[in-house]
From TrEMBL:
Pfam families: Acetyltransf_11, GMPPB_C, Hexapep. SUPFAM superfamilies: Trimeric LpxA-like enzymes (SSF51161). One of its GO terms (biological process) is lipid A biosynthetic process. This is Acyl-[acyl-carrier-protein]--UDP-N-acetylglucosamine O-acyltransferase. Residues 173-254 form the UDP N-acetylglucosamine O-acyltransferase C-terminal domain. PROSITE patterns: HEXAPEP_TRANSFERASES. Keywords: Acyltransferase, Cytoplasm, Lipid A biosynthesis, Lipid biosynthesis, Lipid metabolism, Repeat, Transferase. Residues 6-96 form the Mannose-1-phosphate guanyltransferase C-terminal domain. NCBIfam families: lipid_A_lpxA, PRK05289.1. It comes from Draconibacterium orientale.
Amino acid sequence: MKQPLAYVHPDAKVADNVVIEPFVSIDHDVVIGEGTRIGSSVTILPGTRIGKNCKIFPGAVIGAAPQDLKFQGEYSTVEIGDNNTIREFVTINRGTSAKGKTVIGNNNLLMAYVHVAHDCKVGNNIILVNNVQLAGEVQVDDWAILGGMSAVHQFVRIGSHVMISGGSLVRKDVPPFIKAGREPLSYVGINSIGLRRRQYNNDKIREVQDIYRYIYQKGLNTAQAVEIIEAEMAATPERDEVLLFVKDSKRGIIRGYFPD
């Protein structure tokens, strides 16, 4: 359903049952899937792909050119999956030649004033609380929650099931299954509540705790901790996910917390 005061370019591919409220602007080279609702004054620019059953609230801008001085006008996209809620005044920029696209997965909640910069990859079932700011080429893995007003440095990766406290400055990679807080951002424990909500049993949670005791609480450097974990702990999906994350980290992982 399109309101007469909305503008939809004739080349845009919009499913028949998409709701488009007044003062929306949808440009050419846009695809919007079934059941999606576009709130008043939303702007959707070329190269945007939006899946099914998304809710986009007033004032959001999706598919704007990257805020990157290296961008030379090359073709790029924003790809948004299904069942996402994108609240008021969220901005999502399209990609650059670095990766070619900015990706948002499925079942995510992006609260008001969130910014997702060029070439970011946001997974599934993620919550970005009000005013979270993701710089270019940030990766956020499934089930992560970033507290309000958090700012994430470019190229940082945030692991699955991570919980980051509000107002955090995220300068280094945050490995899976943990909580992070304080300044500078530090390990503050396992996200045990989140893991229980996602049906991790006590044995799995204890296993994750044991992994991070080696990494953060035994006075080992990261390489030593990885070597011991590989030698002494049986291979499991959780162990291997943490080890692979740490080994692949380009910026290094956040520090452990040591009280003054």
